[in-house]
Every structure is written in structure tokens, then in C-alpha cells.
Amino acid sequence: MKYTRTLIFALLVILVAACTERKATTVGSDPEVEKRIGELISRMTLSEKIGQMNQVSAGGDISNYADALRRGQIGSILNEVDPVKINEFQRICVEESRLGIPLLVARDVIHGFHTIFPIPLGLAATFDPELVSEGARIASLEATAQGIRWTFSPMLDIARDPRWGRIAEGSGEDTWLDARMAEAMVRGYQGETLDTTSMAACIKHFVGYGAAEGGRDYNSTFLTERQLRNVYLPPFEAAVKAGAMTLMTSFNDNDGVPSTGNTFILKDILRGEWGFDGLVVTDWNSMGEMIPHGFGTDRKDVAEKAVKAGVDMDMMTFGFISHLEELVAAGSVKESVIDEAVRNILRIKFLLGLFEHPYVDVERGEAVQYAEAHLEAARRSAEESAILLRNDGILPLDPGRIRTILVTGPMADAPHDQLGTWSFDGQKAHTVTPLQALRERFPGKVVYVPGLAYSREKRERFDDVVATARRADVVLAFLGEEAILSGEAHSLADLNLIGSQSALLAALRSAGKPVVATVMAGRPLTIERDLPNCNAVLYSFHPGTMGGPALANLISGDVNPSGKCPVTFLRTVGQAPMYYSHNMTGRPYNGEKLLSEIEAEAGQTSLGNTSYYLDYGACPLFPFGYGLSYTTFSYSDIRLDSQSYPVDGTVNISFKLSNTGDREGTEVVQVYVRDVVGSVTRPVKELKAFERVTLKAGESRTLQLKVAVAELAFWGLDGVKKVEPGDFQLWVAGDSASGEPVAFKVK
Ligand code: GLC
Fold first, then answer.
1. What is the chain's Cα-based Rg?
2. Which of 61, 248, 506, 608 could be bridged to 592 by S-S, CB 3.0 to 4.6 A?
3. Structural domain span for residue 198
């Protein structure tokens, strides 16, 4: 009997422990912080709790908000960047409200605050997480010095349709690259340990927003749970594991459910499976937009749906502040739900140290902006983000052979447009343009004739430019997109160089001199028709404040290009969406003839019989991972340490990389894997590792990379994530379309 009692007691102890154990936290809950949160919540009125859940865009006069601040009706503000005003907002909260709870001050610091780095798509092209993390850290140093402690970045939306303007803001089409960049930016923004230079990261837009049908912003998405779990969710999970403190819901409805009211993704996955205990904020009025979505009847209805789905803070619908109190009074929403939301909000404020340090030192803040080290890091980022797409040898320019350089094009001296989208706080006076930098790099040799004043300009003749080109030894044409053509709500149905830019290139060609085109854009444009008019093409996704010096260093050869395509470059917009990690299909394209190769009398036999376009085929202009250098690299002796691996094993890869050219260069080595047969069809290949390797001219090096077999797991037919034994193929190459596969098995 005694034994039985002991056994029952032991079982009870285990049961109680299991019930009270909190999910593994991700924001890093500190028992002392949790105690302070509980103590503070116990003193808050329902109205004050709901006030914390209210975020307000606070441009303009503080007096408009003073009363609400004193009554504790605002928990966070965005879009105020004047440190003096931010201090005043905080002072009213801390010194004049009943509980003195400081504000969480937010801003879209997307690719730099004052010092602007390349747009995130350009940062992804570096394939250099450490450099990207350094840039995010610098953004935090500048922004926190002015009182901003929360950024709505990184944007993790996988984008496979360049018609979508926001492809500029993310890390491109690939899940693995996106996840590595997400981790890097979270680390950079928040810092290795939280202190007053930490800015809470906000991973967005949760989830699937980049799959907007037709590439048209805000449009519906139709991603299956399996596609979400295998492609779109992993970067968010990686960022949560990296400690991301906040998350933003997306505008889109996926499979009929707007994310801001989607309990499955916000509770079951985010909180239940991943243990996320940070703050969930809506996108701008995305709660209110559930009414036009047809998912809610009015603001009270959508406020109830959002809070029950797991939203903690409302950005600019005013649904919570207007209706939650009555919803609680009516018993529609439990106060415990409010308490959980407020707990998540206060956790961020405590962990950021806002209660101890709500104010900023305005003078110190000024000194941090545009620091030399920040500009230097921005220049390195712009250098590594540029992709050499074509070069017949004209680059790098040989100063000895060059007497006159014609600089032309609408992006040659466009200090605002060069910064790209979401660069509100980047002051164009600090931008160094290609024209300015080239004049410094090649003193006395540069002649500037714009040709076009801005990218959309339409012009019939270019006599002035052509005449000057005839007198030059080389033409450097800077083309692309004004910043306004890129970013939110700026989807395009035509991806050719806009305006008369292609006509400018054709006119320049007629002058008979070598033409180097540098394209600065927020997306991969369809430039195939321009290639015949270019001896070289350098692609620079809006490179930021220091884009000019970076491009001058690349064009002069002081720096060797190393960027790689983070997204597929299409031959024509009609190929969209196109991405490298597509499924094989039952009729994979196998080089079938294009219309241009078929004789006139083609008869009535059906052509092709595989998955491709008769007119443009099934291959891109430039594949994911592609990028040239001023040197060349070769891969050889690719070996695996076994022919088969257990599901918990590690594939150890060794290979020799050789720099077969005449100058030092950096190659981004890429490892792709294909699961040949699965319980569901699998992509033709997926990136599973990459590394930047620098070799001297003529140097060869045997290198090792590894892929944990666990990274080959996927959500299969049974809805479980696991590695399925069978045949696999592995590539080690310089882009997603090169190399020969090496086979291995998982048993
Ligand atoms: C915008 C964007 C979001 C941004 C927010 C605040 O509509 O969708 O990415 O962070 O509003 O500016």
C-alpha cells in the first residue's frame, strides 16, 4: 500500500510539473521580468491594459496625443523620429500617467536608418550574413541613439514574382537564404545581448504575403499548409529561434483567411509549435481591412476576431481601444486574453530596459549618425551586393587605356532614387552618386550627359549623348528604376527598362564605343533585349548611400564583383512566377525547340509536349545564385564521405575550388540537394549551404562543407515533418543551374 501511495504521489508531481511548464520561450523570459510584469498587470485597470495594445502613428504635434498618453491609452507610437519629441512623448508617459509605463517607439528601419544600406534584396545578393548583421547593428546604433527601439524589419516574405514591388524588401526566392538573412538581421538589430542600443526586430509579414496572385500587392494568396510549412514558414521559425522579439501579421488572406484573424498561424503554429512569447502587432490597419476582405462585419467584430486569433497590438485600426472594453464587459472576450496580450507587450518593454532608460541623450545621438565606420560598412555592402551579369572584358576599366569616360543615364546622379524604397530617414544630401564617385576615381576623364532626367522619361532622340559617346573611349550608362517604382503598392506588369532607357542604350550602341550598363533597381528587370547593346552589365539593387563609391570601385577593378542572384532573372514577364526550386512535373522541359527554331511549315503535329513556353522556353535569363567575377573559378574532386547516411547523420562534402583567372576573387560556393522520390513531389533542388571563399589568382583549395541530413526533412503526405529515406542528389556549384549531381542515399 505504502508503495502505491508513493507511486501515485510521484505521478502527481510529474503531472503538475508538466502542466505548469511554460513552452520553451524564445524571447528569453527572465523570472525577474516575469515577476515585474505580473506585479504591474495586477495594478492596471482594464482601460490601461487595452491602452498598451494601441499603436498610433505620431507625426505632427504632440499636444494631439498628450491626453491619451496621460490616460495610458497609447502603448506604442511609430513615425516620430525627432529625439527631442520622442523624449517628450516618453516624459508624458513616464512622469504624467498613473503607472508611468514607457512607450515602445517604432519606425520602419528597413535597410539602414540615416546611413542607408542596399535594399534587402541587394543585401541578400551578398550571400554574406555576417556583413548583413553588421549593417543591421549599425542601423540600430543610429536609430536607438535617436530614441527608436523597435524596427519593422526584417521582412521575410519569400518572393518569386518580380511584378510584386515588395520583392525589394525581402531576401528573394529561396527559403534557406531567407532564413540565414533573417537570423543575421535579428542578431544585428537586437545585439548579442539586450542593451540600450538594441532595437526589437519585427519579423514580417506573417505569412505568405509575397505569393500575392499575379504579383499584385495586397492580393489573395492560396498557399497550402504544406507549401507554407516547407517554403514560407521556415524563415520565420529560424528568426523566432534566433530570438526575434516581435512579429507583424500580413495584409493578405491566405486560402480565405486574413492573417490578422488567422488563429492557426498565430496561435497553433507561432505560439503552440514554436513557443514564441514575443509581441504580435498587426500591419497598418490590417485589422480594419478584414472588413473589406469580407471576414468581419464591423470594427468591433474584427477587433474581437484579431484578439482571439492572438494579436497583441493594433496598428492604426483603433479597434482595440474602441471596442475591447465593451467586448470584455459583454463576456465576448475574457480579460485573461487581454492580460496575455499585455504580458507580451510589457515583456518587450522590460527586456529593452525602457523602464530604466526611457530617454535618449540627444547630443550623443547626433554624433552617431553617418559615422565614417557606418558609411564604410554601407560601401562594403554595396560592393558585395552588386552582381556582374555580363562582361566581354571591358571591365574592369583600364585607366591606362581610358582617356574619356562618358557617364550617362537617369541613375548616374540620382541621390534620392539610389537609396531605394523604405529609406525615409536617409538624407539624400549624404548620398554619393556614381557620377560623383567616378569623377573622383578618374579625375579629368569623366564627361557627363544625362540622356534622360529620370527613369520614366520618354525621349525620341539622343543626339547630344551619341555625339559625346563618339568622342569617348567608354560609355558608363546608369539605368534602372526610380525609387517610387519599387516597394509597397508598386507592382508592375511590365518589367522592361521603363521609359526610353532601352532606346538610350541602342543609341549609345550606334556610337560604336563599348557600353557598360549598371542597373539600379528594386527588382530583377527583364533586360534581355538590352544585352546586345551592352559590353558589360553590373546589377545593383538600389545600393544606398554609398552606392557611388562602391560602383566606382567595382568598375575600376579596385574591388572584384562577388554578388549572386538572390532571385531568378526572367527573360520576359510572361514567365512569372519562375524560380529555381520548382517541382520536376511529369513532363520536365528537356530542351525542346522554341518557335524561333521551328521551320515555317511546322504542320499540325503538337510541339514540345513538355512544360515550357513555345516562345521563351523554360529557362531564365539568369538563374538564382548566378554572378560573374573578374576572375574565373572551377570546381573539381567533389566527394562525399559516404554513399549513405542515417536520418540523423551529416553529409560531409569535400571539393576543390580553383581560381583559374589572373586576379584574386571571391566565389559564393553553393550546395544544392534534391530528394529524388518523396511521399509528395519535391523540388528539383534546394539550397542547403553556401559560403563565400576568397582565392588568390591561380590558387586552388580543397574545402569542406556539410549538410545535416535533418535539414532535408520536409512536411510529407502524412503532415509530419521528417526525412524520408531514399535516393538524393547533391550539387556543389557557383549557381543553381550549374554542376553535376553526386548521388547518396538516406537509410
Ligand atoms: C506598411 C507596411 C509594413 C510597415 C507598416 C508601418 O503598410 O506593410 O511593412 O511596417 O505599414 O509603416
1. 27
2. 608
3. 7-364
Verify that 334 and 407 share a domain, yes or no: no
Catalytic residue among 174, 217, 283, 314: 283
What is the reported pLDDT for 14? 44
**How large a percentage of the chain has pLDDT more than 90?**
92
State the distance from the centre of ligand 1 to the C-alpha of 320, rounded, in angstroms.
19
User: In the sheet that 665-675 helps form, which strands lie side by side, from edge to edge?
Assistant: 644-645, 742-746, 726-733, 665-675, 686-695
Question: In angstroms, rounded to a whole number, what is the distance separating the alpha carbons of residues 372 and 68?
Answer: 41
Q: For residue 277, indicate whether it is catalytic.
A: no
Which residue's CA is the closest to the ligand 1 atom numbered 3? 283
By the 8 A CB rule, do 199 and 107 touch?
no
* pLDDT tens digit sequence for 688-729: 999 999 999 999 999 999 999 999 999 999 999 999 999 999
pLDDT digits (tens, 9 = 90+) for 539-569: 999 999 999 999 999 999 999 999 999 999 9
Which residue's CA is the closest to the ligand 1 atom numbered 6?
284
Report the alpha-carbon angle 453-421-377, nearest 5: 100
* Residues 141 and 25 placed together within one structural domain of the fold: yes
The verdict on 357 and 405 lying in the same domain is no
| Claim to verify: residue 547 and residue 638 sit in the same structural domain | no
Give the pairing type, strands 279-281 and 246-249: parallel
**Are residue 336 and residue 470 in the same domain, yes or no?**
no
In terms of DSSP bridges, do strands 536-541 and 387-391 run parallel, antiparallel, or are they unpaired?
antiparallel
Q: Is residue 262 part of a domain?
A: yes
Ligand 1 pocket, residue 169 CB under 6 Å: no
Task: Please report the pLDDT score of residue 29 as a whole number.
Answer: 74
Around 284, how many Cα atoms within 13 Å sit in the side-chain half-sphere? 10
Q: Identify which of 486, 412, 381 has the alpha carbon closest to the alpha carbon of residue 112.
A: 381
pLDDT of residue 25: 64
Please state whether the predicted TM-score (pTM) of the whole model is above 0.90: yes
Measured from the CA of 202, which atom of ligand 1 is nearest? 10
β-strand pairing of 536-541 with 515-521: parallel
Task: Output the pLDDT for position 23.
Answer: 47
User: Which of 152, 317, 422 maximizes ligand 1 atoms within 8 Å of its Cβ, making it the mutation to test the pocket?
Assistant: 152
How far apart (Å, rounded) are the C-alpha atoms in residues 29 and 413? 49
Residue whose C-alpha cell reads 480565405 in the numeric block:
256
Q: Are residues 321 and 175 in the same domain?
A: yes
Q: Is the CB of 293 under 6 A from ligand 1?
A: no
Nearest CA to ligand 1 atom 11: 284
The Å distance, Cα 743 to ligand 1 centre, comes to 45
Distance 568 CA to ligand 1 centre (A): 26
226 CA distance to ligand 1 middle (Å): 27
Where a domain ends, among 340, 364, 388?
364
Tell me what the mean pLDDT of segment 128-151 comes to: 98
For the chain, the helix, strand and coil percentages under 3-state DSSP, each to the nearest 5: 35, 20, 45
